[in-house]
């Protein structure tokens, strides 16, 4: 197989190279999958630099999210959920490769009518956004929902989930193009959060200027968002894409009766496994109803593992929107 094999930490994605390796041998509880598309993530950038909280021991294959076709089923499982030839998507260490081994709990069936490229970016962003808005914030019809970085992978997923629950979405982003993308995915209003006093513009969009009911924050903008959060508002902290972990003015949380909660989707598989199935059922229901579609960056296409470095570079420089996905051609000996 071919893969991005990291033997030592690198300064940036431009230093990544593709290596030919033996095909992986699955453990008795693992499937072997031929990868047809692989998605990029910010944590991939941190891993290759040796700065992520979950660092695999060197050497290792980079990447995580993927979609592809089952080549073999677990030898220890006489009744596997998937069979040879099934189309699946998932996440497991080693997504930047032509083949990968993964356990059953790390896989889901590719939704009917979805391409490998669209499905490759589902495993991390879609359940994160759904669990944040539905499980943690209790989004409902008529809620005003402020979604920060709305043109990002989790942002576009959140816009669609909120609209599916008949909420009114106010999307923020930092460029005209990204605001256009958010609008195209269903956002009712769009606000540039680089503008001074953007929070006042947000308040004016709500009934009687009361503020938003829910704030979806993957950036680290809680303090400023409190200025435009309504009484009894709910703020869900998804991450800190801006790079700094905030120190929140808790007096504002108290004075507005705000609920401030976090969402660490990756921990549900360990701490609250029963919720994982509930979230995925909700997402698949939305897909079947045509209320949730792929969020793949479409301003240019990436094909072949050699293009992973460029894709990661653009992602790191915040030049993209949605999920940046790389197609992985299957033809033996083809120029990737």
Automatic annotation (TrEMBL):
Gene Ontology molecular-function annotations: oxidoreductase activity; zinc ion binding
GO cellular component, one term: mitochondrion
Protein name, entry field: Enoyl reductase (ER) domain-containing protein
InterPro entries: ADH-like_C (IPR013149), ADH-like_N (IPR013154), ER (IPR020843), GroES-like_sf (IPR011032), NAD(P)-bd_dom_sf (IPR036291), Quin_OxRdtase/zeta-crystal_CS (IPR002364), Zn-ADH-like_protein (IPR051397)
Domain of life per record: Eukaryota
Enoyl reductase (ER) domain location: 11-326
Entries under Pfam families matching the protein: ADH_N (PF08240), ADH_zinc_N (PF00107)
Organism, scientific name: Lepraria neglecta
């Amino acid at each position: 197989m071919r893969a991005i094999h990291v033997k030592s930490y690198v300064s940036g994605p431009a230093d990544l190279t593709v290596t030919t390796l033996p095909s992986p041998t699955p453990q008795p509880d693992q499937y072997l999958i031929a990868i047809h598309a692989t998605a990029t993530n910010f944590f991939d950038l941190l891993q290759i630099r040796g700065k992520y909280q979950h660092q695999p021991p060197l050497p290792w294959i980079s990447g995580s999210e993927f979609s592809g076709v089952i080549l073999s089923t677990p030898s220890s499982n006489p009744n596997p959920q998937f069979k040879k030839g099934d189309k699946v998507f998932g996440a497991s260490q080693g997504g930047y490769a032509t083949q990968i081994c993964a356990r059953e709990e790390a896989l889901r069936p590719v939704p009917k009518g979805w391409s490998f490229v669209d499905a490759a970016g589902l495993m991390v962003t879609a359940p994160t956004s759904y669990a944040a808005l539905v499980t943690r914030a209790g989004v409902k019809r008529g809620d005003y929902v402020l979604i920060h970085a709305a043109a990002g992978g989790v942002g576009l997923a959140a816009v669609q989930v909120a609209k599916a629950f008949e909420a009114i979405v106010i999307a923020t982003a930092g460029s005209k193009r990204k605001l256009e993308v958010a609008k195209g995915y269903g956002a009712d209003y769009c606000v540039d959060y680089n503008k001074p006093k953007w929070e006042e513009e947000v308040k004016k969009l709500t009934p009687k200027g009361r503020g938003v009911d829910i704030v979806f924050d993957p950036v680290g903008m809680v303090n400023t968002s409190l200025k435009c959060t309504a009484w009894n508002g709910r703020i869900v902290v998804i991450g800190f894409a801006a790079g700094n972990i905030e120190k929140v003015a808790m007096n504002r949380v108290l004075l507005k009766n705000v609920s401030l909660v976090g969402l660490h989707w990756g921990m549900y598989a360990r701490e609250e496994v029963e919720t994982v199935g509930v979230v995925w059922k909700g997402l698949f229901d939305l897909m079947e109803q045509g209320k949730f579609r792929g969020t793949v960056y479409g301003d240019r296409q990436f094909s072949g593992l050699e293009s992973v470095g460029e894709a990661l570079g653009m992602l790191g420089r915040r030049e993209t929107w949605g999920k940046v996905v790389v197609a992985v051609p299957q033809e033996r000996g083809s120029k990737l």
